Amino acid sequence: MVRALIKALFFLALMAGVALFLSLRSYSAFTQEELVAVVQCEPAPAGASYGFLIEVRQMAGGVPGRREKFPMVGEQWSMGGDILKWKPWLVFLGAKSCHKLTRLSSRYGQARDEMEKPRAVYDLNGGSTPPWRWLTRWGVALPFVDAVYGNAVYVPVRPGRRWGVYVTHSGYLIRPLPASFS
Q: Where would you tag: which of 15, 85, 120, 174 has the fewest CB atoms within 10 A of its CB?
């Protein structure tokens, strides 16, 4: 009787351990974020024909790339790209969303301003390429693909601020970076 009770307790402890491991693995897989770009907003020099300057430094696997500067207009800046989201069971097994930053653009808070005022739009990484356009059209027909879509995020212009653009399981997000970030 004691031996059976010890075996049952051992089995329950083992199952609790497996459940805890799977819960932590699931939490980690679905909340992971990767820094893909560092963006700094700078004021335009006096007399410039644009409103502000955006400096973009893309990141690949934590390694910073070259700095690029883009003259911008408007009240906000936006960065977007293509996202390929895997089926949840693949994410659980460790597959990360695929992405490609494709565009940096200016933005206004009001739709009317978007239609009437000047804009600035730049391709990043060659823009959306034929393979991504094919995936956008046909990717959901593949058994291991959950969704393929474009995604963009934006924030107000704040000269002197630095932002981190991150890719997550479901798309891009922007967060201010601390002054100590290098």
A: 15
